[in-house]
Amino acid sequence: MNSLDVAHFKEVLGHYATGLVVVSATTSSGPAGFTCQTFGSLSLTPPLVTFAAGSDGQSWSAMRGSELLGISVLSSVQEPLARRFATSGIDKFDGTPYEKGPTGTPLLEGALAHIEGRVVARTTHGDHDVVVVEVTHAQSFSGHPLLYFRGGFTELA
User: Does residue 106 lie in a domain region?
Assistant: First the structure.
């Protein structure tokens, strides 16, 4: 049994700066999405990305069965959207400007990049689901990234 203190572990991991994305899908109830900082590229051939979502998260629970997902890489001016999509119990897309990508997934306007793809694997580890997505569409835009570091939002200096 590991006796590592959870608060201490979280504080240590906070020293690793991450980018932020919104993972989204079209569900039977409409568009759904959540802010995610555990995202990255996995493979170039085939093109794969991966992310982790809290297994019991409200938005992820609504999207878990979706075969197609969209990922919007957030820009430095999208901190309000990062906060909004990290909030439970609200319609996150109400008043949020977005477009539908080639596969129909919702993608946030003003993002640094849009990625769409098909889920090829889902596994559960601890309190998170790890998802692998085969990318079918990718597009980038100009701007600067929104980062998360030591428990807060920041930009590149």
Answer: no
